[in-house]
Each structure stands twice: as structure tokens, then as C-alpha cells.
Amino acid sequence: MGPIEAIYLVFSATLAAAGLSMVGFAVRAYLDTGRHSMMHLSAGFALVVAAAIGTTVVAFVTDFEYTRTLLTANYVVTTAGYIFVMYSIVAPESGRQKP
């Protein structure tokens, strides 16, 4: 493994750890408040993390072949995740509210 692959692996792991933390925070917020927007937020971050982890794994397994296909798949899943994040921000609120 060269230095660029090692850097890629470190940043992918960092993004995955940060994203999974956000998923955990959003799930905890949902459990505390019952706000459905928090579940949409957690689903969005979960998709972003899945795209990052999946891209990293497939890149190393295929020895960084098929980069166009890999990047396209990454962007599709990441975009879907960010759509969930945006929806969680703009959707009308529903669910129980804690006093």
C-alpha cells in the first residue's frame, strides 16, 4: 500500500467514525423527542457512511479499477443520503414533543 492509499484509508475511516457518531446522535435525539426528522437525519447520515465505507472497500478489493463506476455509485448513494438530511431540515414536524 502506497502513501496515497494509506491517506485515503485514514480519511475514509475518519469520515465513517464521524458519520456513525452523527447517526447515533440523531437516533438518540429521536428517542428523546420522538421527532421523525431525527430518523430521516440518521438515515441520511447512514447512507453517507455506507457510501464511504462501500467505496473504500470496493476500491481496495478491485485494486482501484473501475473508478468511474465506483465514483458514480458513491455519488448516487451519497446524494440519496444528503436528500434525507435536507428533508429532515425542511419537512414539517410531526411526532410527539417532549415538554
Describe what this molecule looks like in 3D:
The chain is an all-alpha fold and 99 residues long. Helices cover 82% and strands 0% of the residues. Helix 1 (3-33) runs antiparallel to helix 2 (36-61) and helix 2 (36-61) runs antiparallel to helix 3 (67-90). The longest helix is centred in the N-terminal third of the chain and has 31 residues, at 3-33. 19% of the residues are buried.
Short description:
The protein has 99 residues and is mostly helical. The protein has helices at residues 3-33, 36-61, 67-90. The chain is built from 3 helices and no strands.
Properties at a glance:
single chain, 99 residues, mainly alpha, 0% strand, elongated
List the helices and strands and how they pair.
Elements: H1 3-33, H2 36-61, H3 67-90
Helix pairs in contact: 1-2, 2-3
Low-confidence stretches: none
Give a quick account of the main beta sheet: strands, pairing sense, barrel closure. none
Radius of gyration: 16 Å
| Order of SSEs | HHH
| Beta-strand residue percentage | under 5%
